[in-house]
Design a protein that fits this description.
alpha+beta, 4-stranded antiparallel beta sheet, 4 strands, about 50% helix, globular
Length: about 170
């Protein structure tokens, strides 16, 4: 991957380039803030399942997802809340460690990891606070609905695409 810090063989950090991209945590904080503010507005402004048509192919609909992506395990007995919370926290810790090891010059990689981290933590906050994730962006076409999502999910998706693009460009 681009910018991954090489194992240290002694010497100063300056000899190995600029290490550590924890400065990108501002982006994670921005994602969490935007995610939580948008969900608070939805919770305040819409009743569960209430929709507002934005475009013929886009609605804002307040939905509660107790499962994971695409409502995976949404109908389970409640244990999935804790499974997904613990899993997201473990992954978030790993992402912070990875971010710390990424050279500052690897902006695309650091941005990707920070976006994924912010999105994961945004949804964890919902699970801990509410027991479910608030989804509200509801896109559809000709009667076919894409699973509803939120700002955190968007950040995770953009981060994942950026991560794949970075890997592809590095391999070239």
């Amino acid at each position: 991957m681009t910018g991954a810090a090489a194992p240290s063989s002694g010497g100063s950090i300056a000899a190995h380039g600029r290490r550590g991209s924890l400065i990108y945590l501002w982006l994670s904080a921005l994602v969490i803030t935007a995610d939580q503010l948008s969900k608070a507005a939805i919770e305040h402004g819409l009743a569960p399942f209430q929709s507002v048509v934005v475009l013929p192919v886009l609605e804002i609909t307040r939905l509660h997802n107790s499962g994971a992506a695409f409502s995976f395990l949404a109908n389970a007995a409640g244990w999935q809340r804790w499974l997904f919370t613990v899993l997201a926290i473990v992954v978030s810790i790993a992402l912070v460690v990875w971010l710390r090891r990424i050279d500052r010059g690897a902006r695309a990689l650091a941005t990707a990891v920070a976006l994924i981290l912010g999105g994961a933590l945004g949804n964890v906050i919902d699970r801990l606070r509410l027991g479910h994730v608030v989804d509200f962006i509801n896109a559809h076409w000709a009667g076919h609905y894409f699973p509803a999502f939120n700002v955190a999910d968007s950040a995770i998706t953009i981060g994942a695409v950026l991560l794949m693009l970075d890997a592809w460009l590095e391999a070239r």
